[in-house]
Amino acid sequence: MTIRHKVLIVDDEPHIRRLIQAALNRADYLTIEAESARQAMDRLQHERPEVVLLDLGLPDRDGLELVPLVKQHADTTLIVISARDATEEKVAALDLGADDYLTKPFDTDELLARVRVALRNRMTRGGGVPAVTVGDLSINLLERKIVKAGKEVHLTPKEYAVLAQLAKFPGRVITHEQIMANVWPRDAERHVEYLRVLVRNLRQKLETDPQRPQVISNDVGIGYRLRIPEDTLG
Amino acid sequence: MSERSIEPGRPSPEAFLRAAAQEGRGRLKIFLGAAPGVGKTWEMLTEGRQRGDTGVDVVVGVVESHGRRETEALIEGHEVIDRRQVAHAGHSLGEMDLDAILARAPQLALVDELAHTNAPGSRHPKRYQDVEELLTAGIDVYSTLNIQHVESLNDVVASFTRIRVRETVPDSILEQAEIEVVDIPPDELIERLKEGKVYIPHEATRALGHFFSKTNLTALRELALRRAAQAVDAQMLEHVRANALAGSFAVGERILVAASEHPHAAGLVRAGKRMADALKAPWTAVHIETQRDRHFTDAERRQLADTLALASRLGASTASIPATGVVEGLRSFAHDARATQIVIGKSSRSWWFEARHGSVVDRLVRSVGDVAVHVLPAEATVLVDAAVRSLPSGHWGPPRNYLWSALMVAAMTLLGRLLVEAIDLGNIALLYLVPVMFAAATFGLRAGLFAGLMASLAYNFFFLPPTGTLTVSNPENVISILVLLGVAVVTSQFAARVRAQAELAGSSARQNAALASFSRQLTASATKDELMQAICAEVARLLDVQAVLLLPSEAGPDLRAAYPPEDRLEQIEIAAAQWAIDNEQPAGRGSSTLTASDWLFHPLQASSASGRGVLAVLGIAREDTRDPIRSDQLPLLMSLLDQASVAFDRMALEEENLKAQAVGERDRLRAALLSSVSHDLRTPLTTILSAAQELRKHPSPELVETIDSEAKRLNRFVANLLDMARVEAGALPMRAEATDLFDAVAGAVHDTRVSLLAHMVEVDIVPDIPLVRLDPVLFHHCLINLLDNAGRYADPGTPIVIRCRRGADALLLSVIDQGPGIPPGQEKRVFETFTRLEGSDRVRHGTGLGLAIVKGFAEAMGLAVEASNNDEPHGACFTIRIPEALIIANIDSKNVL
User: Fold this and answer.
1) Is the pLDDT of residue B251 over 60?
2) In this complex, do B740 and A199 lie within 8 Å of one another by their Cβ atoms?
3) Residue-wise pLDDT tens digits, B106-129
4) Residue A145 falls within a domain, yes or no?
5) Which ipTM did the prediction report?
6) Which residues get modified to 4-aspartylphosphate (chain A) (predicted)?
7) Is the peptide bond before B466 cis (omega within 30 degrees of 0)?
């Protein structure tokens, strides 16, 4: 890589910072650190990192408050780090503008995958990616054409809207709320059950084995993401 | 003032009882003044200080200094109990803190302004009632009072000052008190008033200007001195009575009004009041309870209560005294109350009743000796509807009885005519005994006499020579007539007595039956709540009242059961219930405390041995806010309370036993938790520590692998512990939303892929499975734990099947493995915390929590879980039942196109 991307690690736990730093450095990223919200905002303005890893449990400020501040003050990709049971906290962070999340405890492979996804989405920001390929499925957003195993798949307008939203940022989680706001703009018709049925129909059309979905994955209680090879490490 | 003599003789038992009641009670001293400004408070404080100097423990309960420096200086030397702030109508009023004084328990409390009315919401409406409670608690009280606040003098004072004082203190309070008159000459008082030394509320200045005229003050002063003298008289008399001293003592007038259920009794009460005013005498309205009371109609009862209430409003003390007869009752009460005058209404009974029994008035006049009896005509003659009144036994009875009697006599006459040739006349007379005895025994005295009369007439007419005429020619015939009538009287008396006994037996049998059914109901209650509800329902049914049950708690009485259902009580009722708990005595309507409450509260007391005190309070009331309980129902109520207390005691004992068992169970779980935690946390930690040590010397991928897997195991265990803590705390946040079982299963399979590497996971869900309403996160944890469990117990290499089917009334999601399965009989136990089945123990790396979490989470969402064994191939099968109610049917497909 010619350009080394800069990542800001915000965590009050020095061991965690050191480990994340080691992993990122090994993958050829530049790292800077902050141990408090105040320090994080300071670094953000002076160093202009491309990616921020933000632990939501900070000593001086509620991490959730920091999410919109980070997005306002800098053109950066924000990944929040949160505990396992804090589903609502993650959804709130995503709806406030965070780009993705990591669940503690995580391993470094998962961390690096998330950072890579974030950086790629960043580069194709704006219109998103024009085309995505997952296994034998190819999605062309410019031509609005979906091909599965060489055969074109016909989607209803709403099905296409959901798939397009996921495919614009492959690998990144899109919350239920974000999808519903896009597909059913009027509040009155917004029901999770419609979304569930719609995704089930989509899977029937796109998945090789709908019982074991490989294309659209479900983040329990949070949202859906288009699973791309890079992020199916396991 | 009139004089009357007390009969010499033995001390009256009542006097002894009163003396005994005084023992252990505090003594009350009242500083009585003719008007504000005479220096009562100053006098009280001065004397309080003197007592304090001699070592008596004195506190100031409440004293109004009204900003007077000399008073404040006197207060300074005393310990002052802080006032209780009561919010009322936007103001904060400082009231005497009764509880604080009771808790402080001084020897002597100084309480100013005895006639003060407490702020609404206080325990007692009047301060003198607070003082009563202090006295009962054995605390001596000094208090102050102006003469116009004395109840019996209230009207007198109002009559010449033209100022009506609303705050009055009953005479009975003064009677038990030592009275010191604080007296200054009227001129001096007027002088003090001019100098501004008398505190008068600003708004009352003009009204009081008139009050402080010399004539008024002189009259008031005289009243005060006389009242004090009267009190001394009464106390002296009490002393005399207790010591049975013979002699004659002067006492003031006391008027007794005989209140009855008649509407005109209100007129009597008013007349009594006028007389009392005229004589400046205290007066009492008394009702004598006799057998007759049992036959009162509701209207009559209400009338009586109204009459007594009126008397009470007019300043009389009231009493209701049980006695064998009106005359006896009035006489003994007049004697005890030292009455000098009795006011009674003219009898409304028929002339023949009075002729037979003697008029009440006549007998009263004869029996009360030197008490003046005033007989007043009935003012109002609103007659109680005679038809409503239930017929007391001994009255005329229906005409049918007489017809039957006549017929029987006629039948005997016929029989006699047939036999007259065969037997002699004397024996024929015997035949007539049959209808007479029968009528007297069956229909009562009157019908018996009627039959006797008919029989003697018939005997005379048809049989006695000369037959066909009603003449008595020889004494034998007279005797037979007298015998017939005598038999009628004697037989009817016997029969009446037998009937009365049968009635009594019947009523006590009814009462016993009621108690037996009550007892049965209580025994049948399995839980405390059921018991409380049963008590309420039964009491309500048996006494025809509304009933509530409250349990004592830190935050005040807690309403726990009610019949008919009731979910809250007024403040005043809560206060009454609390008082009943604290004092272990009844409170509320119909008792002597907090009578403003519509409810009457009786404490249920534990047997003294158990030392549990008041277990609960039973409240009863009537819809129409009449007195909740009639006096004739009291014995039944007392028995019910007894039984309820016993049942409660039993329940409390059982509860204690259960609690002890629960504690045992908890201890067992805690021990299991400790052993599990120490094992499951330490084992991976030990492995990680030693692997890290080893790694330092010889880098090795295997060691890294060990650390990795052990850390993951630790992670899973900690996660499970946290989940279990949430289940046990009962605080699972529920966010049920439409969930696709495909999604849920796919997510769980994805998250457990690492631990299930040794197995093939087959997903078998019917394609048209409907959406269900679940908390996706909790459900996810359920599935993960079931899959984890299957992965641990299934034989390596065998497939794990997730199957979802529609059942009869539920969706069934099963996780099926092939392996040893569940030991028979253990299907339910597997879901218990820390159950690890034999032979599976530690090698399986289980935490013993997984299945308990599945059960806890599932039940929180309204799901059920069960475990069973499959035969072909052998293995365990865990099934989650998702009930019909959680299934989302019929989704409008156009919304998803």
Assistant:
1) no
2) yes
3) 989 999 989 888 887 788 888 998
4) yes
5) 0.86
6) 55
7) yes
